[in-house]
From TrEMBL:
<keyword id="KW-0472">Membrane</keyword>
<dbReference type="InterPro" id="IPR012373">
    <property type="entry name" value="Ferrdict_sens_TM"/>
</dbReference>
<dbReference type="InterPro" id="IPR032623">
    <property type="entry name" value="FecR_N"/>
</dbReference>
<keyword id="KW-0812">Transmembrane</keyword>
<dbReference type="GO" id="GO:0016989">
    <property type="term" value="F:sigma factor antagonist activity"/>
</dbReference>
<feature type="domain" description="FecR N-terminal">
    <location>
        <begin position="15"/>
        <end position="52"/>
    </location>
</feature>
<feature type="transmembrane region" description="Helical">
    <location>
        <begin position="83"/>
        <end position="102"/>
    </location>
</feature>
<dbReference type="Pfam" id="PF04773">
    <property type="entry name" value="FecR"/>
</dbReference>
<feature type="domain" description="FecR protein">
    <location>
        <begin position="108"/>
        <end position="200"/>
    </location>
</feature>
<keyword id="KW-1133">Transmembrane helix</keyword>
<dbReference type="Pfam" id="PF16220">
    <property type="entry name" value="DUF4880"/>
</dbReference>
<protein>
    <submittedName>
        <fullName>Iron dicitrate transport regulator FecR</fullName>
    </submittedName>
</protein>
<dbReference type="InterPro" id="IPR006860">
    <property type="entry name" value="FecR"/>
</dbReference>
Amino acid sequence: MTRSTPIPREVAISAVNWQLAIHNGEASEISLNHWLDADPNHRRAWEHIQQVNQRLGLMTNPALRSALLTPQGRQRRKAVKQLSTLLFIGAAGVGAGSTLPWREQLADLRTASGERRQLTLPGNIRLDINSASALNLSTQSSGPCIELLQGDLLLDCERSAPGVQVQLETRHGRLSAQQARISLAVHENAALVDLFTGTAQLASGYAPGQIQRLEAGQAASFSSNKAITLAPSDPNRVAWTDGMLVAARMPLGEFVQQLARHRPGYLGCDQSVSSLPVSGSYPLADTDRILDALSKHLPIRIRRLSRYWVRVLPA
């Protein structure tokens, strides 16, 4: 077993219960140590809780404490399950190398659903940030360094000084660009770069020692578990900078997933209609209007339980 092996959900819940028992004086340090020694996963889960709690102060949150410090019962069991999910992010558990949502929450720059931002970095470098994105900014001797944690960005350093290199980092790999116009999107299993002008060098997490040179007009998909895949760049992927979502026979499921980033709450798509092709240019200012337009041209219906819960279903 390695540090990246996921912690089972039942162990996560047990660890939270032990944390509460110790915090409330319901268990002794001796009994806790017996539990920690019984399984390496127990100690890993316990150490993870201490690290997250120290960083975020979860046990000092008044609302959370009120729910967790109630006597044993249904309300407390529900709170324990919610806290274990919050701490360990997901039913399958979490490994030490996983990217947790806390990194996104604590990022230098974040955009909310439906929010897009534009800023100018030193050296005449322009940065567009898409909705629901998070990134960290730092400076190196050769130029700025941007770590994209989630979402999309469009970088324009065409007019930067000669010799200035912009570093772009993701959990899937890293790039360096000089006097280029380049977009980067980070997804759960891979990242996608489109190079519109200039040149760039790409090193994927799959083969970090191998450098792939990218030329203007190329796109590349890269990740930590497969080789780099090259394709032509697609300007439609940065239509969001103009407040548009442009699709050319895009599967409906993918279209809905992209649209969901530009509105609050839940927006989902039934698997039975997810492969229907969508084409057209859609203004992102009114996502409900987009959904209504789709329902007129595709065999689908829009189910709305509220403004914040919408699902696309077969007609």
